[in-house]
């Protein structure tokens, strides 16, 4: 029986943000694990004091607890962690959805300086927060210092991706307002193995909360079954 580790993104709800994918995987016969990365699934304040190494260690422990063969699927920040695990271990397959190897908002990179004077940041423009809260289970805001940790993770992943030899599927959200196309394509280009595929969906950053989520989930499961066999 094949196993799949499913990793959520930065400020994302650990289960709700993954939409129909986990259940689609289970129905296909895969064993699924969905760890809650430290600081998530509770309240934004709980991201204070969490390091990127804490996210990585939680993901690593959940991955190693699964029986082999193991695949790993990650959304946004989860895609960075998924790539790290695939570089570190003999992973059966890697799927990265909108991997956050860069930000459209370049001001994000001022976080190491700004967090002293601007301790809180919004996940979206403040005028969008109320609308997004009604549609999304994610944190509407977060401690700026937590973004510093995401940037630290982001800067370490590129040197690891060339070590990935597993079959890889990278998905771009064409209407992503968080991660630029160039960052997703760079992630794909850096993957070292020859068996890799790039797909573009007409969706937003939270691909598995998008109207296309059922199709995306079905496509991921079909690809994993092709690479791993039925669960």
- How many E-type strands? 8
Order of helices and strands: EHEHEHEHEHEHEHEH
The low-confidence parts are 113-117, 124-134
Shape: globular
Summing up helix and strand content along with how strands pair, one would put the structural category as alpha/beta
Biggest β-sheet, characterized?
Answer: 6 strands, parallel
User: What's the arrangement of strands in the largest beta sheet?
Assistant: 2-1-3-4-7-8
CATH superfamily: Alpha/Beta hydrolase fold, catalytic domain
Radius of gyration: 16 Å
Number of H/I helices: 8
Into which percent range does the helicity of residues fall?
25-40%
CATH architecture, please? 3-Layer(aba) Sandwich
End-to-end Cα distance, whole Å, is 5 Å
Number of domains: 1
Mean pLDDT: 88
CATH topology: Rossmann fold
CATH class: Alpha Beta
> Percent of residues in beta strands?
15-25%
InterPro entries: AB_hydrolase_fold (IPR029058), Esterase_lipase (IPR012354), Hydrolase_4 (IPR022742), MAG_DAG_Lipase (IPR051044)
EC number: 3.1.1.23
Organism: Meiothermus taiwanensis
Protein name: Thermostable monoacylglycerol lipase
Task: Report on this structure.
The protein is α/β, with parallel strands linked by helices. The protein has a single domain, classed as Rossmann fold. Helix content is 36%, strand content 16%. It is built from eight helices and eight strands, in the order E-H-E-H-E-H-E-H-E-H-E-H-E-H-E-H. It has helices at residues 21-27, 52-65, 77-88, 111-114, 129-135, 144-156, 181-190, 213-228; strands spanning 3-7, 31-33, 70-75, 93-97, 120-122, 141-143, 168-173, 196-201. The strands form two sheets. It has a six-stranded parallel beta sheet, sandwiched between helices. The radius of gyration is 16 Å and the shape is globular. The chain starts with a strand and ends with a helix.
């Amino acid at each position: 029986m094949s196993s799949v580790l499913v990793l959520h993104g930065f400020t994302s709800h650990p289960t709700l943000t993954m939409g129909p994918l986990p259940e689609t995987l289970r129905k296909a016969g895969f064993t699924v694990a969905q760890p809650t990365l430290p600081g998530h699934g509770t309240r934004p304040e709980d991201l204070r004091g969490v390091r990127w190494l804490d996210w990585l260690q939680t993901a690593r422990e959940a991955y190693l607890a699964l029986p082999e063969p193991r695949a790993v699927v990650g959304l946004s920040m989860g895609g960075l962690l998924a790539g790290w695990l695939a570089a570190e271990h003999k992973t059966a397959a890697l799927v990265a959805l909108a991997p956050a190897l860069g930000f459209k908002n370049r001001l994000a990179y001022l976080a190491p300086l700004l967090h002293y004077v601007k301790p809180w940041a919004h996940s979206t423009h403040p005028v969008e927060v109320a609308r997004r809260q009604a549609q999304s289970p994610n944190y509407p805001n977060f401690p700026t210092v937590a973004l510093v940790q995401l940037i630290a993770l982001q800067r370490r992943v590129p040197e690891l991706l060339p070590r990935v030899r597993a079959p890889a599927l990278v998905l771009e959200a064409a209407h992503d307002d968080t991660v630029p196309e160039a960052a997703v394509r760079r992630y794909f280009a850096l993957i070292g193995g020859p068996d890799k595929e790039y797909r573009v969906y007409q969706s937003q950053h939270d691909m598995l909360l998008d109207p296309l989520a059922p199709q995306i989930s079905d496509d991921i499961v079909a690809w994993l079954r092709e690479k791993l066999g039925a669960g």
